[in-house]
Each structure stands twice: as structure tokens, then as C-alpha cells.
Write a structure and sequence with these properties.
Elements lengths: L5 E6 L2 E10 L10 E3 L4 E2 L5 H18 L17 H31 L12 H4 L3 H10 L5 H23 L26 H31 L3 H19 L5 E5 L6 E7 L10 E7 L10 E4 L24 H13 L13 H7 L3 H17 L3
Antiparallel strand pairs: 1-2, 2-3, 2-4, 5-6, 6-7, 7-8
Helix pairs in contact: 2-5, 2-6, 5-6, 6-7, 9-10
This protein binds 2-acetamido-2-deoxy-beta-D-glucopyranose (2 copies).
The site of one 2-acetamido-2-deoxy-beta-D-glucopyranose has 5 residues, from helix 6.
Length: about 375
Amino acid sequence: MSDHAILRITRESDIRNVKALIVGPPGTPYEFGFFESSSTWRGERGEEWSSAQGLESILISIQSLMSSNPYENEPGYEDAKSPEDKIMMAHYIAKIQHETLRIAVIQPLEDSLGIQLDGTLLPPTNASDTDDEETCFEDEKAAFEPFSDLRKRRFLWYYESYMQTIETAAQKVKPQEKFQQMSFEGGDNAMAGVFDYPELKRRIRFIKEAILNETKNWAVKGLEAKKRESRIAVNLQRQYEQVVEDLQRQKAFAIDLTLLDDNPFVWKMTYFGRPMTHLDGGIFKIKIHLSPRFPDEQPRVFVETPLFHHRVSKDGVLCYLPRRTEEMKHHIEAIVEALEEESPPYDPRTTVNLEASKLFWGSAEEKKKYYRALRKSVERSTE
Ligand SMILES: *[C@@H]1O[C@H](CO)[C@@H](O)[C@H](O)[C@H]1NC(C)=O
Ligand SMILES: *[C@@H]1O[C@H](CO)[C@@H](O)[C@H](O)[C@H]1NC(C)=O
């Protein structure tokens, strides 16, 4: 799970049943698309490890085919150089970019959010609203959808990138322009359709709204779970108390934690910037939303105080990576690390503010600009 691009999930009840997801590489027309293996992978009994490794190498080779110029992967077109070829190449890349957004981002998210083609929402099913163990188990048997939550969380990270891709790409095509067929396309392998960026934009906005609504709704479901004294409510309450106790013992004055309305599904965190760091003197309000299906659904974390930071999206979504996903202790640690890290390696998959990232990993002059903007938001945070 350390590679941010290839994720494998094994169903606990059957370790030979593996599903995989590839996140399209940045800088290619597949950028931040979610490509899920359509068949589950089944290893032979006793060969689980080697077959899983086999899967890994298959995934890596699939990923390497997702290059910035897919045209050159087509047999016979490796050396396409004439002006006509170049025009076709650009058109092919534009098509892939459009269809990556439509098929590998929008459609699977709409499906898992119950958004229908006419833009209305399906009523939520009863099964997903309960944390009754039996029902969850039945539910899990019916649909093994390990990436549904991951896609939602990453969608919030990559939202700005999707929108920017659309802005740029929309300028290069006419509204409703038809896809041209390449000479190597045919049969099942042909991409037909039209460019419709305004429609993609509308659907992406709607998806974001639906995810944010769902996140808010966790608090409501959570309070109900607490009233029922359900197992997850008790578990999260206990984790909260443990984390607070640990923080007090460690005299970790930089962090203050409370529950919103005594609800163990909404943690309010205040982070005080440590002396001698770029966040020195800042006071930041952070809200951690937890799902009644935690840890299968991971927390969604929002920095509510405006903060110019490469890990914080324009909407305040914080991108952080906990070492262990099932313990809130690790989430809190990772949130602080994400805010404080001084010189992280550049990885576009985990940087969620395009302007801040460009400056942070830019020239010396740009980096200074980054820190000036960061300091400004730190100063404003106490007003
Ligand atoms: C779902 O909940 C509603 C209202 O609580 C109930 O009337 C309905 O029978 C339930 N459906 C299923 C499939 O359990
Ligand atoms: C989100 O919630 C608001 C307020 O309840 C509602 O008006 C809106 O239609 C919802 N949007 C989506 C996409 O679910």
C-alpha cells in the first residue's frame, strides 16, 4: 500500500480474491483516473503470494502503458511524425483525457453515490444505513467494493486538478465536437462520442456536493448509532478518550481535541503552530468526520481556518496518509505531520493545492513566495 498509484485489496474472508486499482499517472491523459481491475484475480491454492506478485507486475506494466503519448503504444504508430500524424495524435490524447474523466472518474463515483443519469439521487439503501453486524456482513458478501471510499476521498484531493484539466481541454475543442476515429481503432476498441466538457464539469461539481452531503450525514447517523450504543459508537468514543489521555500524558500542547455535540463521529481539533516552524503562532480549526462504517470508510478531514498549504485543498480538504488506518491515534499523528512536514518529496498524487504545490516545489524565488503566502494565512488565523 506504500505506492500511491497501485492499490491491491484482498477480501479478508478469501485471501485469493484480490481486486486492484490503478490511479492514472500524473502528466498523462489518464491523470487521476481510477482504473479498477474488472475481474477479480484468483491465485491457485498455496500460491497466494506468488500470484499476488504476478498481479503486481501485471499492474505495473499496465500502468507503464498509460504514458503521456498513448499514440506511440499503437503498433505501427511508434514513429508517427508527419504533421497529419501529429494532429491525429493530439486528437487521440484529447479523446483519452475526456473519456478518462467520464468513465474512470465520474461514472464509478456516480454509481457509488447513487446519482442517476437524470441527475437525481437514489434513496439510500437500508443496509448501508445500519451498522448491525449481521447486515453488514450480508452486505459485504453481496458487493465487494473496496475502492468506493478511496475514490471519494481521492476525488476530493484531485477535484481542483479535474477542474483545471477541463478548463484547459475545453479550449481546444468545439462544443459537441465529434470524436474522430483513429485508423487503429475498430470494433470493441473504438472510442466514439463527443466532447462535452460543460457536462463533465456539471457532473463533477454535483459529485463533490454529494460527497460533502454524505460526509455531513455521517454526523447524523453517528448520533443515532450513539443512542443505540452501537459497537462502532462505543469504539470511537473509547478511541477518542484514549487519544486525549495520550496527548495529555505527552504534554502535546499543540493539539486540542473535543467532540462536536458529544458526538464521537465528529472530532474538533485545534492545532497550534509550534514555535520555530512556519506555522508558529497560528491557530487552526480542523474538523474530522468519521463514518459509522469506520474504518472501512476512512475519516474526511477539513481545515476550516483558511490555510495556504500544499496539503490543503482550496476547499480545506486535508491530504494526509496515516500509517495505520484503523486507529485514530495514527490519523491524528498523520494530520499533524502533514501540516508540519518541512521537505516532503514531490508527489503530485498527494499534493492537493495546485498553486501552493507549484510554488513549494518551484524555484528558490517561488518557494519564498510560498512561505510568504503561508505566513500570511498563519497571521490571519488568529484574527
Ligand atoms: C427500509 O426501511 C423502510 C423504512 O424504515 C422500510 O419500510 C422498508 O421495508 C425497508 N426496506 C428493506 C429492504 O428492508
Ligand atoms: C446536498 O444537500 C442539500 C441540502 O440538504 C440539498 O439541497 C442538495 O440537493 C444536496 N445535493 C446533493 C448532490 O446531494
